[in-house]
Amino acid sequence: MIKRLGDSTIRFEKEPSIVGFASVVGKKEAEGPLKDDFDKIIYDMHLGQDTWEKAESVLQKEALSIALTKSKKDARDIDFIFAGDLLNQCISSSYGLKDFNIPYLGQYGACSTMVQGLVMAAVMVASGASHMSACVTSSHFCSAERQYRFPLDYGGQRPQSSQWTVTGAGCCILSDSEEKSLPKVKVATVGRIVDLGVNDQNNMGAAMAPAATDTLMRFFRDTKTSPSDYDMIYTGDLGKIGSELLYELMQKEGVDIRHNHKDCGVMIFDKKEMDVHSGGSGCGCCSSVLCSHILNNVTARKQKSVLVIATGALLSPTSIQQKETIPSIAHLVNIIA
Amino acid sequence: MIKRLGDSTIRFEKEPSIVGFASVVGKKEAEGPLKDDFDKIIYDMHLGQDTWEKAESVLQKEALSIALTKSKKDARDIDFIFAGDLLNQCISSSYGLKDFNIPYLGQYGACSTMVQGLVMAAVMVASGASHMSACVTSSHFCSAERQYRFPLDYGGQRPQSSQWTVTGAGCCILSDSEEKSLPKVKVATVGRIVDLGVNDQNNMGAAMAPAATDTLMRFFRDTKTSPSDYDMIYTGDLGKIGSELLYELMQKEGVDIRHNHKDCGVMIFDKKEMDVHSGGSGCGCCSSVLCSHILNNVTARKQKSVLVIATGALLSPTSIQQKETIPSIAHLVNIIA
Asked: B22 and B171: one domain?
């Protein structure tokens, strides 16, 4: 049912269908170029909660609820849910999803978590272990700022290479439905941890670009395809600087992706006007763009085969204080119309 | 290849084999009743590193290396590795495993992570997505104390219901080998998040026992079996108090497990002499006991069919400060000789 291709790529012989997807974002994200693609816009950054962490939990709850409603499914239809976020011990996922009563498998791949969850959900469905599985991830600007940059009053200046944590969540529901009009997950490549020694936490794009290159190159080798076989290659959130570096690294491997590549972190904000420096980031960046603009395009058959490569930096504030370098990872899925 | 049973249980039709397993523990754990079962004992809590977090990374590295050596495999033979720990952003896994170059999928289920990883690795192997996959988890008393109970100088007194974080790691390697002498993973039940309102972080056993009950009862219903069908039911780390509560909760469901139940957190320490209060805990507790005593028993056919249910408390220091209750989860596998 699932076939190995080459080194570390898997091909779903019976391709899982994306029967539902939904995105929820904050006000700033909804002022960007993708505003018409999102399902719900949150104008109250607190989402009616008394802490940022609980607010982020509500983002996940909303994304899953809307995906269920859009696909006319009930939480009881979902066999397994894969979820994750950036908070310590992934609390926005555990608290956000606990009331749904769905068998739960917490994932941690930093900003790559959405595609990791998608790969796992696809494996569950394609293997017969599940009729329907879901994945959801989130991030919230304020909970991330508190956790990673506290005390904020210190006013550390953000360099141009830094990225802006997206307030948002995205959810996908995968099923073994054979309905032809639905987007399908065809191939996946699981990332390896790559660490080329970058230790600047304000330049995550540079830390993650080598991981994206490693995964892309293995995918192309394993599938014997090239960039021109795909309508678009979307990276998770390398940002502007990380994307430029990706072009250079891919060029060194003899592969040019400049002409059909976009980065979710660059797409979600209007860089000129929004003061986000290198672009968006966070587990909610790739997930909210995937579960809106990208899947809208594939569903409408504007794009018939796309690659989504979510990148994650597997550091922590502690590892940075201890002068460690930043290990990164990138997971890939090929989604087809 | 994988069959759904009832509500949320999966049956591996071609059962993945456990081709290798290994455990590494600290000095205190090696002074307990299971001392002769462990593969390696660490007498230097620093493991030659300058921080506790790096020391914990080395535990994972050692556990995987020994499991590879014992099974005569190479890191290149492993298609996917599932790993996790209790540290923020799971850094002992990402830093500990980065040099092995194995496609990596980070898991977070608190102290339930080992069985979660085992379920995922088994799914990968049974579905044909992988010939060989591994899982590894760790915890370290000192990195956990620093993260969860800092500043230690405050000297908060440990109540009798508290548990002692195990310094240890365990690793399992699963493969599609059909060699009959190897232990096999036959059935798995994925846990749901259960939260009955316990908010005392010094009584995790009480928070987790309802999750263990929920998973066990669903497993018995889905498989139409009862406790007497199994040689032993091992829970992850409910400790003494959590185990007593589990007996009561199971009794309310009409099921008596007192006669063939043991808890890894109780087994690993000598409660009378070791001042560990309710018992051991941490991602390294269930994994080091599973990958030593339990799998030794199954390999030697002293036990032919056992249940391993690892429990996890999905809280964080932040959620506790915010007066949240403690959501818990329990994942189960049935391992057969």
From this structure: yes
Q: Evaluate if residue A145 carries a pLDDT over 90.
A: no
CA distance B51 to chain A (A): 8
Same-domain status, B168 and B197:
no
Q: How many CB atoms lie within 10 A of CB A279?
A: 27
Q: Which residues of B touch A97 (CB under 8 A)?
A: 193
Mutate one of A94, A139, A194 to test the B interface: name it (highest B CB count within 10 A). Answer: A94
Closest residue of A to B88, CA-based? A88
User: Which candidate in A79, A105, A123 is best for mutational testing of the B interface (most B CBs within 10 A)?
Assistant: A105
* Tally of domains in chain B: 2
d(CA A46, CA A44): 5
Q: Cβ contact (<8 Å) for A87 and B195?
A: no
Same domain, B110 and B255: no
Q: Where are the beta strands (DSSP E) in chain B?
A: 2-5, 9-12, 17-26, 40-42, 80-84, 104-106, 132-139, 164-165, 168-175, 184-189, 232-235, 261-263, 280-281, 305-313, 328-336
Is B2 a domain residue?
Answer: no
* Out of A95, A191, A192, closest to residue B319 by CB: A95
Q: Which residues of B touch A130 (CB under 8 A)?
A: 4
Distance CA A117, CA A78 (A): 14
- Residue B62 shares a structural domain with residue B100: yes
Among the candidates B149, B175, B201, a domain finishes at: B175
How is residue A139 written in tokens? 């991030």
- My answer on whether B50 and B130 are in the same domain is yes
- What number of other Cβ atoms are within 10 A of residue A46's Cβ? 13
ipTM for the whole complex = 0.97
Q: Residue A318 and residue B54: Cβ atoms within 8 Å?
A: no
Q: Are residues B195 and B167 in the same domain?
A: no
**Last-in-domain residue among A148, A175, A202:** A175
pLDDT band at B149 (very low <50, low <70, confident <90, very high): confident
Q: How far is A108 from chain B (nearest CA, A)?
A: 5
Residues A124 and A206 grouped into a single domain: no
Same domain? For B43 and B166 the reply is: yes
- CATH code, B240: 3.40.47.40
Q: Which of A147, A190, A318 sits opposite B53 (nearest CB)?
A: A318
A122 pLDDT band, cuts 50/70/90, is very high
Helices (H) and strands (E) in chain A, counts: 12, 15
Domain that holds residue A62: 14-175
pLDDT at A69: 98
d(CA A202, CA A208): 12
Find the residue in B nearest to A95 (Cα).
Answer: B327
- 8 Å CB contact of A80 and B126: no
Q: Look at residue B225 and tell me whether its pLDDT is greater than 90.
A: yes
pLDDT in tens, A62-88: 999 999 999 999 999 999 999 999 999
Within A164-282, residue ranges assigned H as helices are 204-223, 239-252, 264-267, 271-274
Asked whether residue B81 is domain-assigned, the answer is yes
The reply to whether residue B123 touches residue A126, judged by beta carbons under 8 angstroms, is no
Tell me the nearest-neighbour CA distance from B310 into chain A, angstroms: 13
Look at B89 and A127 and tell me if their CB atoms are within 8 Å.
Answer: no
Residue A62 lies in a domain: yes
Is A137 a domain residue?
yes
Report the percent of chain A where pLDDT is more than 90. 88
For residues B72 and A318, what is the distance between their CA atoms, to the nearest angstrom?
35
The confidence band for A318, taking pLDDT boundaries of 50, 70 and 90, is very high
Query: What's the whole-number mean pLDDT along residues A91-103?
Result: 97
Q: Tell if the CB–CB gap between A94 and B327 is shorter than 8 Å.
A: yes
What 8-state DSSP symbol labels residue B92? H
Contact: A88, B317; criterion CB under 8 Å: yes
Do the Cβ atoms of B127 and A130 come within 8 Å? no
Q: Enter the tokens of residue B104.
A: 């990596």
Q: What distance in Å separates residue B31's CA from the closest CA in chain A?
A: 30
